[in-house]
Amino acid sequence: MKLKLNLIALLLTVAAHGSPFADLTDVEGKPAQWATTKTRVLVSLWATWCPECKSKLRHELVEYDKRPDVAVVAVNTEKDMGRVKHFIQAEGIKLPVIVDSQRTLRSSLKAFSVPHWAVYERTAQGWSLVDTAPAFELARIEKALEKRL
């Protein structure tokens, strides 16, 4: 039994290292914690000045996060953490927020503007990118969430 639990812990650790968030932080500057039992992750890159982002953070993304197979992570692209923290509190954002102030994830996704989204799937090798695109195309996001690698 102990060997089985250790193997599960090892697999979760390996999967976490394959995380697209490995070098990112939370709004407090601590390393982003990434552990989910869900098989899909919908990442939404956003900024406080983006009206479409604000709407998505309060409505559509919250609905996606309620799905049993999907976790939503809001990735802010700004450097002013005071502004980001104030926005999260003032708008009552309940989704996990990770900060990409060094633009690591943004660069890897070739995201030049916000909003921008990406869907990742958990595989035996870690997290794999399913699809990514600018704007917020609901039909394309739905298709990415259903696609199997």
Percent helix: 25-40%
First CA to last CA: what distance? 31 Å
Poorly predicted regions: 1-17
pLDDT averaged residue by residue = 84
Order of adjacent strands in the largest pleated sheet: 1-4-3-2-5-6
The radius of gyration is 15 Å
Strand proportion = 15-25%
Major beta sheet, specifics? 6 strands, mixed
DSSP strand tally: 6
Could you say which structural class the secondary elements and strand pairing correspond to?
alpha/beta
Net shape: globular
Please tally the helical runs, counting DSSP H or I stretches of 4 or more residues: 6
Oligomer: single chain
Order of helices and strands: HEEHHEHEHEEH
Written overview of the protein:
- This protein is of the alpha/beta class and 149 residues long.
- The protein is 37% helix and 24% strand.
- The protein is built from 6 helices and 6 strands, in the order H-E-E-H-H-E-H-E-H-E-E-H.
- Strands 1-4-3-2-5-6 form a 6-stranded mixed beta sheet.
- Helix 4 (81-91) links the parallel strand 3 (70-76) and strand 4.
- 28% of the residues are buried.
Keywords:
single chain; 149 residues; alpha/beta; six-stranded mixed beta sheet; 6 strands; 37% helix; 24% strand; disordered N terminus
Describe the structure in brief:
This protein has helices at 2-17, 51-58, 60-65, 81-91, 104-108, 138-146, and strands at 25-26, 40-46, 70-76, 97-99, 116-123, 126-134. With 149 residues, the chain is an alpha/beta fold.
SSE order and pairing:
Layout lengths: L1 H16 L7 E2 L13 E7 L4 H8 L1 H6 L4 E7 L4 H11 L5 E3 L4 H5 L7 E8 L2 E9 L3 H9 L3
Parallel strand pairs: 2-3, 3-4
Antiparallel strand pairs: 1-4, 2-5, 5-6
